Please model this.
Amino acid sequence: MAGLCAAARARELGGSPTVLEKGTRPGGSMVLSSGVIWRYRTFEEFRAQCPGGDERLQRLVFDGLDEGLEWLESLGAPVVGRETGNPLTTGVRFDLEGLTEALLRAAGPVRFEQPVTVTGDALLLASGGFQGNADLVERYVRPAARLRLRANPWSSGDGLRIGLERGAALTAGLDEFYGRNMADVDFDEPGFVPLAQVYGRHARIFNERGEEFFDHDQVSWSELDLVQATAHQPHARAWYLLDERALDERVRYGTVRDLVAAAPTRTDPAELPFEPPSSTVAAVRVAAAITHTIGGLRIDDRARVLDEQDEPLDGLFAAGVDAGGISTGGYASGLAAALVLGRTAAEAALS
Ligand SMILES: Cc1cc2nc3c(=O)[nH]c(=O)nc-3n(C[C@H](O)[C@H](O)[C@H](O)COP(=O)(O)OP(=O)(O)OC[C@H]3O[C@@H](n4cnc5c(N)ncnc54)[C@H](O)[C@@H]3O)c2cc1C
Model:
């Protein structure tokens, strides 16, 4: 998304950008997403939710989002909702096909290349993170077992690699990621949303050794802390154990009972590999899946990639997931960061 937003903004400002795409279609993980581009309602909430993030970048994304959303609409991106359903946040949900078409119209032609050859005075790294590269995930995130991928397959750290080759510094939080605990089965794109098990806060949470490794009262609203903790459990798996009260809890799309009933790894408590609490009436085996990395290249508030001395590297920009340091310590909208930083990078490159 960040690359398309940057190209669209650059063209608007009179530039002649070239979008290079490694995948077989444009739009990356944006096209697979739920299309909700959001921010916290207040900047204080953003800081409280993502305390490890770079305050200047958080300010940039927070202040620039509403204008960015209006800009998307002005390009013709169709809105399907103006509520996020979360009292902490505000945002807009776009129709993904329409959003992609609007951005492509404004960005100009996309050149599909593998490998990608880079030319031009300014280069924007917008390759979407390194979650698609199991070696990099192992090096930086250090999960107990390979994480399942819940994202496009092409974001495999090319931006990170090119940045490092040119002397870029990295942010904190390289071990953090946005993802979901998923029903522990093989899945591909159609399973990304329906197989996500986002009700850990109502469950008792055990690993397969029978240890309760996370207190459900402490699970954050986004459940990212639980997903990241699951990644460090044996086989990067967990069991969600549910009692009758938990099954009646309401979640975003119905009740926990509905989600448990649909989960392919729903298990009778009598068949668990350990003795569950006596009130357990249902169990679901989940595995941690990664959608995108949170740490990445260090940038300034003009999206310029920085070196270890915090000096900008000549002609090198990063946006979207390739740029780290925005939601460190918590969770914030990746689409929002891609939109705002993509636009910022274009404006900086052409100024
Ligand atoms: C199921 C799902 C639901 C989600 N829901 C939401 C949501 O509702 N709200 C939200 O904010 N976020 C959501 N996200 C996350 C969101 O999709 C990402 O944060 C966002 O797409 C990141 O933007 P990006 O531009 O950094 O990466 P992408 O949108 O993934 O784009 C990166 C692009 O770079 C390409 N690429 C990789 N390497 C190279 C290379 N060497 N050369 C050229 N091209 C390359 C990739 O093919 C891809 O097209 C969701 C993601 C998923 C998978």
